[in-house]
Specification:
disordered N terminus; single chain; 17 helices; five-stranded mixed sheet; three-stranded antiparallel sheet; 12 strands; 457 residues; 3 domains; alpha+beta
Amino acid sequence: MRIARPGLLGAKMADTKAILESARTWHKLCLVVSGTALLLLLAPKNVDYQSALEEAYTLRDLDFQRYESFARGFLPINTYLPGGYGDYALNIATFLTSKLDFHVQPIESTRWDVKLIVQYDQAPTNGSLQEWHAWLTSGRKPTYFVPDWDTARLSMSRSGNGLASAPTAQYFTIRSSSWHRFPGEYTFRAFIDASPATSRTTDGGLPVTASQWRNSQWWSALDVLDSRDLWEKARILGSDHFVVEGDLSSHLAAATDNPSISGPNDKTTVRDWLIQAGLWTKLSTAGKSGEVVLPALRVYWSDLHQRPLQDAIAFMEEKQREIQDIDLLGLRVPGQLCIEAIPFAYLVIFLFLLLDVRYLRRVQIAEGLGDLSVAPWVVLYDDVGARLITAVSVVLGPSLLAIGLLVRYFSRTDIFATVLAVASILGAAVAEAGILRVVSQLKKPTPSTSPMSSSSA
């Protein structure tokens, strides 16, 4: 049997010096990367703007048209039809008859739509956060322009000549005037059917039933037009249908001026709307000292209160993405770069380290070396302390540090960096397993030799 002598082993080990030096260098580099990762993992967290951003996003996404609808919805609109309370269809027909030179008959199926003009504090969409705060806390109630039917005047109608019977008003609307000649100007429209009941037929020539006639909405395409366009369209309607339009003035009234909604139901402020929409809890908090509006934003108020909303969002998003820089051997390294590069650095280090130990194993077999546990590298030492250092520095430490960085800074890295980190961690884990397997083989004698401890001359 061929026995390896210490002198011979020393000569053979000299041939592997370069390989061991390379492996030790990669191991040292791994320790440097682990130290950098630990600094990042234990570094004090940057200012967290997440809660403040959520408040800012809530402000940005408010639908102000819904507030107008909310405010308008507190008024019983039927009271603002001509004649007020009572038989609304009769009141509409009576009003139209008083303005025309022919009688308009009421029908039970008359429909109406009232859109009151609401005046309220507009949101400071281009204003600073200080202005947003003032808007949220103003407590001012909206006001309403109440139609004054005594000022109604016609601007479009027709005469009663040629009418075989009293026409009927099928649809009646009140809305803001498209002329905008003065604040609170209203336009009213009546869509009137003048066809005799016996002459109403479908496109196929069949008689129109009473239900079909009541449900017809021939006016829907006309109702969306402004007054200028309506004039042109109304001229070609034919003798069976026509439109009556007019204007009227109004006066301002606050919500509390209407006795039907005063008291506990008089909740028409911006705050009331946000409470009803379930958004107020996202913008305020209640404490012992009272209610605080925009509490998360007010933590950074000195930096944000003069900024427009969109600028404040951009500022906080940029700060939220920032990661503390690392002082690495006197060189300032961007923290964001470290987070993305560390898992990949582990992968590269362990791949090269795996190549070195595999090559060392081939040399061990080819040269007939004994076990290499006496080689000057802690990874090859065959005792409990060395095994513990190897496990921590090559397996547990890098894996836990890479995963910890990914978890801690997950919200601050983009999707590409996250995918690269996960793939690098998995690849490094495979390389680590290969390194441990080969190192365990290096600590055993080759098949053609005996252990060094039993070698003799």
